User: What shape does this take?
Amino acid sequence: MTLQSLARTIAKARHGTDAMWANYMGAAEAVVALDRTTYADSVAPYAAALRMVREAVEEIFGPAANMESMDAILLRGPEPHHQAEAIIAALQNVAGAQRSA
Assistant: This one.
């Protein structure tokens, strides 16, 4: 959704028409800024917890985990589920190595 379409939606909700949409561009920008801040704030503790789990897997299993680098993970995206996918893959590597041994 663009800022303009959000402003039009706000104007239509308040006045029944989107004719005054330009007056609501500030409100639309504030909503988008609030949404970004809220997401970052809500994700931060989970991202920190996943970093701790990642460090523990690396420390406990070492090279056997074949943990993906942070740069490689960030190429897929910055969301916590990308980090979780890398941790799961590393644990599967360890489990597979133990089964074959």
